[in-house]
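QA checklist item 7 of 12: single-chain prediction sanity check.
[x] sequence parsed
[x] length recorded as 164
[x] structure emitted
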Amino acid sequence: MSMKEPTPRRRVKFTGTFTEEIRRLIKKKREELGLTYLTIAQFFKINWSTFRKWENGETINCGLRHRPLIEAFINGDLDTELQSLYASSSNKYPNTSSSKVYQAMERVANTYTLCSQNPAIGENMLTKIEQIAMDTLKHLVIASRNRQRQPNYGAPKGRKPRGR
C-alpha cells in the first residue's frame, strides 16, 4: 500500500488589491500566529492602523514595496521568522484567555494609543475600565462566598414556606 504525499497548499498570489479573500487570509494568519496589530505592523514597518485597514477593508490597494511581503505572509513563508522574532508578544496575554478577551484587550490598547492627543479622554476610559474590573471582582467574590456557604449536597438552600 503506497502512502499519498500531502497535497501542497495552493499558493496565493497578491497583486496589491485587497480582495475579501486576501483580507480574510491576512486576518486568519495574524490570529493564527497570535500577533497583535502593533506587532505585525512593526514587522511590516507601518503604522498599526494601516495593517488594521488592510485587514478590515478600509484600504483597497497597497504600495509596491509591501506586495511581496504580504504575499509571503499569507503563504506562511514568514511564519518561522515571525514566531521567533515575536514569541514574547504572542505570550502577552495568557493562553487561557478567550479570543474575545484577547481582541477586546487589543481594542482597548489601540483606543488608548489613539487618545494620545487628548489625554483626558484616555484617562476617563481607563477610569471606567478600572471601575468595571473592580465591580466584576466584587461580584465574583460575593458569588464565591455564596457557593461556600451552601452545603455540598442536594439542591441549594432556599426559604421554607411559612404555614398559616
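[x] summary fact logged: The radius of gyration is 24 Å.
[ ] second reviewer sign-off
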